[in-house]
Every structure is written in structure tokens, then in C-alpha cells.
Amino acid sequence: MCTGHHQHSHILCPQCDLLVALPALDDGQKASCPRCDTILVSQWSAPRKRPTIYALSALFMLLLANLFPFVHMSVAGIKSQITLLQIPNVLFDEDYSSLGSFFLIFVQIVPILMLVIILLLVNRVRLPLVLKKSMARVLFQLKSWGMAEIFLAGVLVSFVKLMAYGSIGIGSSFIPWCLFCVLQLLTFQYVDRRWLWDDIQPLPVLSQPLVVGKSGLKQGLRSCHCCSAILPADMWECPRCQGRGHARRKNSLQWTLALLVTSIILYFPANILPIMVTDFLGSKFASTILAGVILLWNEGSYPVAMVIFIASIMVPTLKMIAIGWLCWDAKQPQKKDRKRMHAIYEVVEFVGRWSMIDVFVISVLSALVRMGGIMNIHPDIGALMFALVVILTMLSAANFDPRLSWDSRDDDMKEESSTNGE
Predict the structure, then answer these.
(1) What number is the average pLDDT over the span 350-366?
(2) Terminus of the chain with fewer CB atoms < 10 Å: N or C?
(3) What is the rounded distance in angstroms from the CA atom of residue 38 to the CA atom of residue 14?
(4) Can you name the residues that pair with 278 across neighbouring β-strands?
């Protein structure tokens, strides 16, 4: 049993609610939960310099990627090329401002906003404390919504689809965009949530004794979902980050199921209605998601067909089944296989956003294929429906409280546990 002045060396696992004593870590090591294996904290050398260098380099690459042509295409002597900023403009002109907005938000605005916030916070730029806290809250809430690398995968799939019609080439901004995707991922990797919040403001004082190896709920404690501070369970607002919460997310299952049912309702028209219309030499062909997969398969593009099938059909279907299963399991009084359910939750969290590949493919095709009377591609209502399905399933998974899967009478570890350095 430990007293409150050692709170800085303890953490409540955000996934299973186990109270864990943090070991001393060397640079490059991570501490994980002994029960569910969730990474709790990371220790990096030069925690300010690394994110700063990577973030500045990423923003510079993004600037170059937006200034020059991105990809080009040639069909029967007619050439077409686009920049990244032309993609949302075309979607706006086609009266699909929703798809254009999704591209701007997920591919450009969210990554830029996160990189700027990281630069300001890790370098201790003089800002009002309230603003710093707000920025840190936004940073970790938006982490799953940056999709620059998913858009890059969509561009590569677009190349395969267009090779049957003409010659495809990359512009001078394609390589900078690839570098931007890598650099922004490295930036996020080297920013540890606990370290960043401790740098903004120390942990609040907790006088209550801490029992390692026992769930926070059974000790009358809760973890702040925003800054990971350990708080009394009945404390509604965190004194450090002003984040509001409860021992368990309020109405977690209700919100999760409501969003899940809505996504299921939209999933059927998303697969039945056409996602794009191809106008080739005056003849128009409407394509659904499944029709696109079959076309790629028949043309011999088996790997790409499998990628689209897995990302756009299999993943959304299995994700909706998995979320429903998690909600059902959380209501059971005894949870016999908690680790398996936790693994399912982590997979759902990770793969959900990759279903946006098909939406980004349509965005690229609609912007690039503008060949006058020879060939044009336009988005259709199915693309919007499918994008909404992906977003709703992401929100559904985000509203599910994974700690519910661990709550039972015998879920505490019998012996005091500590994390393992990786």
C-alpha cells in the first residue's frame, strides 16, 4: 500500500482500470499494464528536440506537397494534373462539399493542427495556462482523426485503377507528401501523454492510499481520461486539466449502441447505391463498392482488389459485429475471456479509420479524371453514405468504455503487480 505523495509513480490503466506502479525507465523503454498489456508511458531521450525536429520537417514537407503538382494522367494525348488543394475544390464544384470537407479536415487540417500544438507545448511557448490545457485536450482527442497516411494508400489504389485507361505519373509534390506522412507519425510517436501533461502542470494531490494491483473502481478512484491523473471517483472535474468525467463513461453502452445502429442503417444504402459514375466516351457507368472490387479482380489486380475488399467491405462489417459483441459482453456478470475481448477492442480501434481508403480513392479519381468528352469521373451518393458509416463506427468505438469488459467481482490481480520495461 502506498501513500498519496507517491502518486507520480502510479497510474490507473485507461483500458482495464488496474492501479500500476511505474518502474524507472531508461530512454527508449515503455511501461505496459501487466494485465492487458496496454502501453502506459514511454521514456524518450531529448523529448523536446525530437518532436520539434520531426514536426518542423513534417510541416515543411506539407508546404512543398501543397505547392506543386501531385499526380498527373494522360489519356489519348489529353493530359490532366492536380495539386492536393484542387481535390477538395473539385468536390465542392461537384456539389459534394461534404466529401471535400472530409478531405480537408482529416487529411490536412487535423494533422496540421496537431503538429502546431505539439510544437507550442513541447517547447514551452509562453501561452496562458488555460489555453495550453485546451490545446493538450484537443491534441489527444484528435489523434485518431488524422488520416494523411490513409489518403496516401488511397492514392496508390487510384493509380492501379487508372492504369487501364492511360498513363499515370507522380508530380514533384508526391515525394514530399510521402515524407510528410512518415514524419508526422514519428512526431506523434515521441510525444508521451503523461510527460506532456506533467510538463504543463503537476499532478493534483491525492491523500488517499493507493493499493497496487487493484482496480481503481474498487478503491473509489478514477483515471482522468484526458491527462491520466488519479482522482477520487466522485470528483467530476479534474483539477489539473479541467476535463470532466466519471469512474466509467456516462451512458457509454447507450451511446455506443445508438451510433452502431445508425451506422448499420446507413451501411446498406452505402453498399447498394453507386459511389461514383464514370463517363467514358459518352457512356456512363455507375459503380458500387463491390462492383469496383469485382472489376479490379477481373483485370488481374488481385492485391488491390483484396485491399479494397478488406478495407471497405470486410472491416466495416466485422467492426460493427465486434462493437455489438463488446457491448453484449460488457453486460455479462462474469467475463471469462477478458483479454480476448480487449484484443478485439484494440483491433477495432486501430483498423476502423482505414475504411476511408475508398472515399479517398473516389476523391482522387474525381479530381484527376477530367478529360472533356473522353473520360470523366464523378462522386455519387454512395460515397457520402459510406464515409458517414466509417465516421459513425469510429465514434461508436470511441464511446465504448473498455474498462466495462474488465469489471467483475474477481477482476483484480491477487498479487501486487508492476509494469515490464520493453
Answers:
(1) 87
(2) N
(3) 8
(4) 285, 377
